[in-house]
Design goal:
Number of helices: 8
Keywords: RNA-binding, Transcription, Transcription antitermination, Transcription regulation
InterPro entries: NusB-like_sf, NusB_fam, NusB_RsmB_TIM44
Order of helices and strands: HHHHHHHH
Family: Belongs to the NusB family.
Number of domains: 1
GO molecular function: RNA binding
Distance between the termini: 47 Å
CATH class: Mainly Alpha
CATH superfamily: NusB-like
Oligomer: single chain
Structural class: mainly alpha
Helix content: 55-70%
CATH architecture: Orthogonal Bundle
Largest sheet: none
CATH topology: N-utilizing Substance Protein B Homolog, Chain A
Shape: globular
Strand content: under 5%
Protein name: Transcription antitermination protein NusB
């Protein structure tokens, strides 16, 4: 096996891409920077884990629609402000909402299932139920939301 930089490959699969996007959003928030800027500085770098195309599309998509995503999130996260949510949950929910509303090739059920899985993997014991509830509420009106985007 070659150890040069050309043998480094981004993780395969959308689950790994979503996981990497959550990591980038979390790190960007901790560094008080933008995730798109953070990711673009790492594309092609041999010093860090490579970033795949789907991760880039998630980071750029959430970045481009962040204001609307946060409005939808704040409206449907009953009793929770964005600031009160754990940073990981915010990142997971933003990705889930982006996939549900702007990614026509991702069924709502898949976006919800993946987000719940990421919450189980990365966040608190209560997070999967919270993420499922918020995205489930959004799924019931997703067609109306898509129509006005």
């Amino acid at each position: 096996m070659s150890t040069d930089s050309t043998s480094k490959r981004a993780p395969f699969g959308r689950h790994a891409a979503r996981l990497r996007a959550v990591e980038l959003f979390y790190e960007a928030e901790q560094r008080d920077t933008d995730a798109v800027t953070l990711a673009s500085g790492r594309v092609g770098s041999v010093d860090v884990e490579p970033i795949g195309d789907y991760t880039i599309s998630l980071v750029e998509g959430v970045g481009a629609h962040r204001k609307r995503i946060d409005e939808v999130l704040a409206e449907h996260a009953h009793g929770w402000s964005l600031e009160r949510m754990p940073a990981v949950d915010r990142a997971v929910l933003r990705i889930g909402i982006y996939e549900m509303l702007w990614m026509s090739d991702v069924p709502d059920a898949v976006a919800i299932d993946e987000a719940v899985g990421l919450a189980k993997e990365l966040s608190t014991e209560d997070s999967p139920r919270f993420v499922n509830g918020v995205l489930g509420r959004i799924a019931t009106i997703a067609d109306r939301l898509r129509a006005v985007l």
